[in-house]
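Practice problem: predict the structure.
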Amino acid sequence: MTNQRSIVLLGSSGFIGKSLCPALERAWAGPVVTVSLDDEPRPGHVQLDLLAVDTAELRAMFERTNPAAVVNCTGALAGSHTHLVNLNMLAVANVVDALSTLDDARYLHIGSAAEYGPGLEGVLTSEDAPVAPTTPYGVTKLAATMLVRAASQAGEIDATVLRLFNPVGPGLPASSFLGSASEQMRRAKETGEESIALGSLDAYRDFIDCRDFAGAVVAVLRTPGASGEVFNVGRGKGVGLLAMLERLMAISGFDGRIETIGAGSSASTGVSWQAADITKLTTATGWIPRYSLDDALQSLWDGVSRRSVESERIIP
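Answer:
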C-alpha cells in the first residue's frame, strides 16, 4: 500500500473518463490511478474488469492504491438488457461492496439525466423531481443511483451522485445524437456524400462541455459534507437538437442535406424536453459552467478531425 492518497478513476478509457482524467491530474497533488478494461500506456494504470473481478480482489486493489476518492465513470449507453444491467448496475454493486470496508474513501458516482425521464417543457428539472425513466438505460442508471444512495444513507460508504445531462466533447460516442452527426459529417466531407441521416430533431436537451463537467467533479471533490446527495450537472438551458445541428454544420463546414429517419437516441427515447436546474450544485460548490456550446461543438469537431488525420497516417 502506498502512503500517498490517490484518486482512482474507474472507466478511464471511456468518453467521460478520458475527458475527466486531465482535470483530476491538474487538481490533485497525489497520483491519479486509472482503471479500465484496456491496457492503457500510462504509469500506475490498472487493467481490470469490474464484472469479472470478485469483491475481495477489487477491495485489494483499493487498498493498494489508497484512494482519497473513487470516481466511477463506467457504464453502457446501449446494448441488450443484460448488458445494461451488468455494466450499469452489477458493476456498481461490486464497487459499493468493495468500498464499504474502507474507512475514509469518498465515492463519486456518475449518474444520468435519463434517470428523470420526460421533463415539462420550459421547466428546469431539480434533484427532487419525480424519477420516471422511459428507457432500459435510464432504468438501470436509476437503480444504480438508488443503490449508491441507500448504501450512503446507511453509513456504508461516503457517496455523492452527479447526474450528468448531455456532455459534448472529443470522442463522443456515435450512439449519441451529436456523436453520430459529427461522424457522418466527417465521412460525408471525405467521400463527397451530399446528405446524412439522423433521428428526430424535435427534442430539446441540456448540453454541457465535458470540460465543465470535469470542473464540476473537481468542485464536488473539494466540497465536504455532500454524502448521500445528488447534484445535477448541466448548463441549465434547454436547446433544440436542430439548433445544435445547425451550429455543428457551421463549425464543420458541412453544407449537405439532413434526412430524418426514425427516433432519436435509444438512451432517451420518449423525452422531448429536458434541462437541468443546477442551483443546488452552484450553491454548494461555487461551480458554474464556463464553456459555451460553440466551445463544446468545436472541441467535438476537432476530435473527429484528429481521428480522421490519424487514420490516414496508418494507411500504408
